[in-house]
């Protein structure tokens, strides 16, 4: 038994056992333009969000729980530039994501050269929606 699905990146399901994860971090980058003013401190004007990056870290134990083929599928999707939807079990949808990178570290090799433990990191970045409230209003 692999346990309940806790998060999904497109067709790749993260579970309690098998293809699971240990932690998720999010980084939102927003920009503020500095506007020079006379006689006082420069003003700041918010110009909008620039990017949001989610990093998913995990550890696989392929001999006991599997998951190595799923990590290979994520790597293949990244190589082919396939955008994927990211969502978690609580129903929060993070939108379409571009896989920015996949790293893995294999350890505890057996006599056949297979890893007993694989730690990995997947970095995804949200793809812009193509429109915003400002574009709908004709401002940009």
What can you see in these coordinates?
- This is Phage tail protein.
- It comes from marine sediment metagenome.
- It is a single chain.
- The chain has helices at 62-65, 68-79, 133-136, and strands at 5-9, 12-15, 23-35, 43-60, 84-88, 93-109, 115-126.
- β5 (84-88) and β6 form a beta hairpin.
- The chain has one domain (5-28, 44-136): Beta Barrel (Elongation Factor Tu (Ef-tu), domain 3).
- The protein has three helices and seven strands, in the order ββββααβββα.
Describe the protein's topology.
Blueprint: E1 5-9, E2 12-15, E3 23-35, E4 43-60, H1 62-65, H2 68-79, E5 84-88, E6 93-109, E7 115-126, H3 133-136
Antiparallel strand pairs: 1-2, 1-5, 3-4, 4-7, 5-6, 6-7
Instruction: List SSEs in N-to-C order.
Output: EEEEHHEEEH
* Sequence stretches where pLDDT stays below 50 over 5 or more residues: 130-136
- Report the CATH topology name: Elongation Factor Tu (Ef-tu), domain 3
* CATH A-level architecture: Beta Barrel
Strand order of the largest sheet: 2-1-5-6-7-4-3
| Helix percentage range | 10-25%
CATH class: Mainly Beta
Counting helices, strands and paired strands, the structural category is mainly beta
List keywords for this structure.
elongated; mainly beta; about 55% strand; 7-stranded antiparallel beta sheet; about 140 residues; 3 helices; Elongation Factor Tu (Ef-tu), domain 3
């Amino acid at each position: 038994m692999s346990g309940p699905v806790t998060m999904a990146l497109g067709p790749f399901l993260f579970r309690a056992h098998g293809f699971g994860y240990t932690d998720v971090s999010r980084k939102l980058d927003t920009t503020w333009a500095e506007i020079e003013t006379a006689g006082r401190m420069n003003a700041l004007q918010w110009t909008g969000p620039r990017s949001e990056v989610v990093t998913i870290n995990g550890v696989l134990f392929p001999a006991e729980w599997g998951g190595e083929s799923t990590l290979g599928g994520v790597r293949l999707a990244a190589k082919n530039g396939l955008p994927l939807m990211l969502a978690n079990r609580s129903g929060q949808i993070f939108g379409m994501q571009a896989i920015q990178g996949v790293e893995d570290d294999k350890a505890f090799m057996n006599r056949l050269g297979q890893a007993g433990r694989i730690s990995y990191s997947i970095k995804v970045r949200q793809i812009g929606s193509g429109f915003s409230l400002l574009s709908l209003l004709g401002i940009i």
